[in-house]
Amino acid sequence: LLSIASRKGLVAAAGPDQVVIATTESVRKAFETPKDGDSDIRTFEPQLKIPMPMRVSQLSFTADENYLILSAESGGGLAVYEVQSLLSGSTSSAFELSTNGETLRALVPNPTSEKAELCAIVTNNGNLHMANLKERQISNPLKNQVSCVSWSSKGKQLCAGLGDGTIFQMTPEGEGKGEIPKPPNVGDFHVSSLTWLENHLFLSIHTSNNQSPPTSIYHIITRQPPSSYIFQKLTDPVEPFGSDKTPHHTILRIRDFPPALQDMLIVASTAGSEMGVLSRSKIPLATDRPADSITGVFTTTEFLDDTKRPTLPMTDSMDDSTPIGVALDLSGKEKVYKPIPSDVELEESPGPLPGFWALTHEGVVCAWWVVYNESIRQATVYPHLTAVEGTSAPASAPTPQAAAPAAASSPFSNPGPSAFGSAAQLGQKASPWGSANTTAAAPSTGGAVFGSSGFSNAAAPSAPAFGKPSAIGFGQSSQLGAKSSPWASAATSGGASSTTPAFGQSGFSSFANNNDTSPFGKAAANSGASTSGGFAGFAGKSGFASVNNEGSGSVFGSGNKPAASPFGSSSTGDTAFPAKSQESSNSPFGSTPFKLQSSFKPDGSANENNAKPSGSLFGSNFGSALTDANNKPAITTPTPRDEDMGSAGLTEETPRAKTKESLFAAQQ
């Protein structure tokens, strides 16, 4: 229910009765606003609101960022909005497509701009269809008993996780290309989440069907063609710790972050309020294991200072929050002030930093910088930031006033009868395609692919977008709020500073509800019903819930069309990174006190006595010459080549060395 179009600098989020759209820059600036009384909620007014008579269960931008796709919690269907029309103030969909009354479990777009018209959709009945925006059609079922899907990085093939625990590799037309068996010693489990990492490398999460509470098992699967497999079990990075909720996992991927980070997978689960990390590095991230056992392979990664772990704020009633959407923000253009607080000589990052945003069931958006210390020290930047890739211009900054009714209609605004809740057949044409395609669908797995824009030449500000930092790493929080809408933007500042940060200052912003009642309902129930949307449990012996055929009219968008773009003209010199303040650095947001801290304590058993806090992703002197548990120099291995995952007959394999399930800790 949260999606970011980084190339255009837009964020979309779904509430109980509307979808709000804002520029990412305006959200970052909202973190700078002062507190309103004792509340940590900041007032934030989005640039555009699309009224919704029904709840939305899926929301995502397409990979080329030309469309925003929504699906209804009841009756399913797809409503496709043209982004350019939204920027002009239109609230009408360009067209709608029927899913024959079936609610969607997942909406997973093709990750490439070249094939951005394709989108895989999985219904709650377990039927996999392919949608095509160009043809405005949805295919007949390509596969049954499907629980989740993941595209190859080049978007030429996809893998479907099945209810029996196996994985089916196929083309977008439905042609089978291979099967991956269930890992050994896994019983009555379905594939609840799947990420296709490389040609022959996969991350699978299997979740039990009939256990209470459900159990999830993680594996890195290495295929040795033609039919041999290695299953490397990983420790769950987001243990539910007694939660009885059925977990839905969402995985975001940061890859090829120089100088040495090959992969960082950020894992969110609806069964917990903390985020976890799986990583793969060309140099070891810890010294308590032999270097060759933890180099170039995936490992579960923990923080020595657990206050640096991304953790959602608790509710006013002191209950845990539930993530209902996560996304990467790659639209930042400004440098970050003091990215490593322990380094007094380092004033700012060499370039922009990636952001990680999460939307809670109460409408609070939480955001963190992703700070890779060795990258900061070696003056490298994440190459997939839009400011670094550089092509299209972002959406212009918002005007302060509300939008007025407007004239221009979408070039696609001839939807005809609503497809939502109707009995229209899937695949009305012979084409195996339908509509929809997104990059950062909240319930979807895998890493979104973002576009690019020109690198900003703005002067480097002296403070970060999410406030003054007191620590680095996934960490501090603060909150923003809105008066006139059920949204807000918020942030709570983080706890004590760490000298060896992992991921950077956080800011909790929120499209939050101003009322006492959460617009999303209780955390235990999540935003969507248990039988709808990508966050639903995979229940029943068959692993599939029945679907609902409700709804008669379009649930998306009134015909209101404001006369002027609510996104206004380009901003001048304003920046989301304010000048250095004289306020105490105890709070990353200046006047905002730290409100919520992680209930977890640092791992006292971890080795903390050797390395100086020279900075690493996980505070383990990342990039320095380390010695491992065998007193050997740390080993550097080459990055495995990620070939065209959609091509058949490839023989290159990923490293097969198994890693011990080591939990890395920062050295201080």
Automatic annotation (TrEMBL):
Going by the entry's taxonomy, the superkingdom of the source organism is recorded as: Eukaryota
Q: Which SUPFAM superfamilies match?
A: Nucleoporin domain
Query: Could you name the Gene Ontology cellular component terms for this entry?
Result: nuclear pore
Task: Spell out the molecular function terms from Gene Ontology.
Answer: nuclear localization sequence binding; structural constituent of nuclear pore
Region: Disordered, residue numbers: 391-426, 477-499, 557-668
Short name of any one Pfam family annotated for the protein: Beta-prop_NUP159_NUP214
Which keywords label this protein?
Nucleus, Transport
Where is the major localization of this protein?
nucleus
Where in the cell does this protein reside? Answer: Nucleus
Task: Answer whether the UniProt record assigns the keyword Transcription to this protein.
Answer: no
Q: Where is the composition biased (Low complexity)?
A: 391-422, 484-499
| Example GO biological process | RNA export from nucleus
Q: Which residues form the Nucleoporin Nup159/Nup146 N-terminal domain?
A: 1-364
Q: Where is the composition biased (Polar residues)?
A: 581-639
Can you name this protein? Nucleoporin
Q: Which organism is it from?
A: Fusarium heterosporum
